[in-house]
Design brief:
This protein is 76% helix and 0% strand. With 292 residues, it is mostly helical. It is elongated and about 100 Å long.
Length: 292
C-alpha cells in the first residue's frame, strides 16, 4: 500500500484497531483513509498538529475524495495560520460535497480572517442552509451582518444563536451592539447587563454598559466603575479609554478626562474635539478662580 514498509505494519494495525474501536463492539475494519483520519484527529486533540497533518496527507493519498479528511486538513492549516492552504482544503471538500456544512463554515471563517466578508457570508449562509441548528454558524452570520452594517438582520440571527446557546455571554454583547445601532437603548442595556452577568470580565460589555448608563444620566458611580474596570482590563483599547473620558467629563472630573482622552488618541481613537472642549472648560475654570 503506497510507500509503507514492512516495519509500518504493526503501527498501521494499531490504527486500524483504533478505527474498529471507534465503530463500537464487534466491529472489524481494513486499514484505510478513515483509520488515518481517526489517527490524525487523535494527534490534533493532543496538540500535535505536524503529525496530524502527515496523517491527513497520507489519508488523501489513499482516498483523494475523502471529504472529511480535506476538511480536517484545512483545520490544521488554519491552526498553523496557513490561511490559503486551509482555504484550498475547504474548497476541495466543498467541490466533493457541496452540502458539507462544516467545510462551508470553515471556509467562511477563513474568508472572515482575510477580510473578504461577502465570500464569508456566502459560505456561512450555505452552512446554515444545511438545516442543522449550529450555534457557531448562526452566531457568525449574525455578527457578520452587524459588522457589514445590517444590525436588523444581525439581531435576528443572534437571537436565534441565543436560543441555541443561552449561556453565551458574547452573543448578548453583540445583541446589545445591534440594539444600540438600531436606537433601542433600553434593550441594548439589558443585553449588555446579561453579557456581564454571564462573564464579569467582559471588558467590551462593561465599557458599553458604562457608556449607556452615563448617556442616560443614570448610576454615575456604576458607569464610572464599569468604564474604569474595562480600561484596567484592556488598557490598549482606545474606544474604552474614550468612553471613560466621556464619563469623567460628564461627571465633573475634567483633569482625569483630559488624561484618558489623550491616551485614546495615542491608541488611535479620535478624541480631538473632546480634548478641545475639556481644555476650554479647564481654562474657563482657571479664569473664574483668578477673578475671584
Amino acid at each position: 500500500m503506497i510507500d509503507y514498509a514492512r516495519q509500518d505494519i504493526m503501527d498501521n494495525a494499531r490504527k486500524a484497531l483504533a478505527h474498529a474501536a471507534f465503530l463500537g463492539p464487534n466491529s472489524s475494519v481494513l486499514f484505510d483513509s478513515v483509520s488515518l483520519n481517526i489517527s490524525g484527529d487523535a494527534y490534533y486533540q493532543e496538540g500535535d498538529v505536524p503529525n496530524a497533518v502527515k496523517e491527513f496527507q497520507t489519508a488523501l493519498k489513499l482516498d483523494p475524495e475523502n471529504v472529511n479528511v480535506h476538511n480536517s486538513l484545512g483545520v490544521c492549516y488554519g491552526v498553523r495560520k496557513s490561511l490559503q492552504e486551509a482555504l484550498n482544503s475547504f474548497e476541495s471538500a466543498i467541490k466533493l460535497d457541496g452540502g458539507h456544512a462544516m467545510a462551508h463554515y470553515n471556509a467562511g471563517y477563513v474568508y472572515r480572517l482575510l477580510n473578504q466578508n461577502d465570500n464569508a457570508m456566502e459560505h456561512f449562509l450555505k452552512a446554515d442552509a444545511a438545516g442543522e441548528e449550529v450555534f457557531e454558524v448562526t452566531f457568525q452570520i449574525g455578527k457578520l451582518y452587524l459588522d457589514m452594517g445590517d444590525p436588523a438582520k444581525g439581531e435576528s440571527f443572534l437571537q436565534s444563536a441565543m436560543i441555541i446557546c443561552p449561556d453565551s455571554g458574547i452573543t448578548y454583547y453583540h445583541l446589545g451592539e445591534c440594539c444600540e445601532a438600531l436606537g433601542k437603548k433600553d434593550e441594548a442595556m439589558a443585553h449588555y447587563e446579561t453579557a456581564v452577568k454571564r462573564n464579569p470580565n467582559d471588558a467590551a460589555a462593561l465599557s458599553a454598559l458604562g457608556a449607556l448608563y452615563d448617556e442616560k444620566g443614570e448610576n454615575p458611580e456604576i458607569s464610572t466603575m464599569f468604564c474604569e474596570k474595562s480600561v484596567e482590563m484592556s488598557p490598549e483599547n482606545g474606544l474604552f479609554q474614550f468612553r471613560l473620558g466621556c464619563v469623567y467629563a460628564n461627571n465633573d472630573q475634567p483633569d482625569k478626562a483630559l488624561d484618558v482622552f489623550e491616551n485614546a488618541i495615542k491608541l488611535g481613537h479620535d478624541a480631538a474635539a473632546e480634548i478641545d472642549r475639556v481644555k476650554e472648560r479647564l481654562s474657563y475654570e482657571r479664569r473664574e478662580r483668578l477673578s475671584n
